[in-house]
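Bug report (template v2)

What were you trying to do?
Predict the complex of my protein with adenosine-5'-triphosphate.

What happened?
Run completed; filing so the output is reviewed.

Input:
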Amino acid sequence: MSRVVCIPGDGIGPGVTHAVRRVIDASGAGIEWIEASAGLATFELQGDPLPQETIEAIGKHRVALKGPLTTPVGSGFRSINVSLRKEFDLYVNLRPVKWFEGVKSLFTHLDLVIFRENTEGLYSGVEHYIDSRKSAAESVAIVTRYGSERIIRAAFEYARKHARKKVTIVHKANILKFTSGMFLGIGQALAKEYPDIECDDKIVDNMVMQLVMNPERFDVIVTTNLFGDILSDLACGLIGGLGLAPGANIGDDTAIFEAVHGSATDIAGKNIANPSALLLAGVLMLRHLGKTEHAEKIEGALVKVLKDGTSVTPDLNREQGVHTDNMADAIIANL
Ligand code: ATP
């Protein structure tokens, strides 16, 4: 039995989490779920969006599966996702972007992986108004040598372990000569330790165009926090949308697995959210726990359901989409 902290989250979170847990349990992976809460609903109920018990549970069990958490825009509490990443020093944000047969999308056969630095850059939390009239504000991007080295090394190590051919460093070193320039310099130096892996770099504005025009040219991408956030949503759009994109936040001793999408309040409570993104996050989690066989079994079942296309949620099949729970039933039937 492996213990995993489960945070259902907000909006569509509880629905997709329930579906994913059913599939993982049915696979026989032997997970004991430790219930915990966080997010806007928790804030409304307890006055704290990230209760101490939740932090302690993750600290104790070191692996969590987390539904999306709503962060109020502009005001209110700070992003809980950002707080969790900082609390547990989850410096790698791993986002595989893979096309599945049967899914209508702009590109097919795409298979790339984004490594986003997860703890610093423009998301360091250093921002404030610079005068009492609030007429101007500043946000500080902090990029450290230590933080850059460990995310870039993680990308190269991943490439080597998974027989990937190329790592692309994405930056804006022509303008942001210190922060982005340092990141690029560190990447180019580290690349020399990995002569078996091709390394190139792209300025972020060129990169977005290249990703839209020729995404198959990329393999592993590594970049700083804000660029990684934007690039990974763009990449999800290339393979059929947010419903299929998993993410993992990984540190040296703790990992939190999640879907890339947010709480999607527009479809919350309707039982129509696609559970695939969180399920694929669950697959990453099972691999992290060494349960490779169960991970493959679940991914294989999902692949069949997506290919068949009749038991998928409305985001994938507008005419005959089924409920979240029915899609989960179909995946279970294919295990
Ligand atoms: P948040 O504020 O929590 O980031 P959001 O609504 O701004 O959430 P997302 O939740 O990421 O952003 O979703 C954007 C849109 O994509 C949603 O409005 C929804 O229609 C669609 N969407 C996201 N996730 C899913 C899903 N799992 N299944 C189906 N549609 C989804």
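What did the reviewer find?
DSSP finds eleven helices and twelve strands in the chain. The chain has two domains: 1-94+242-335, 111-237.
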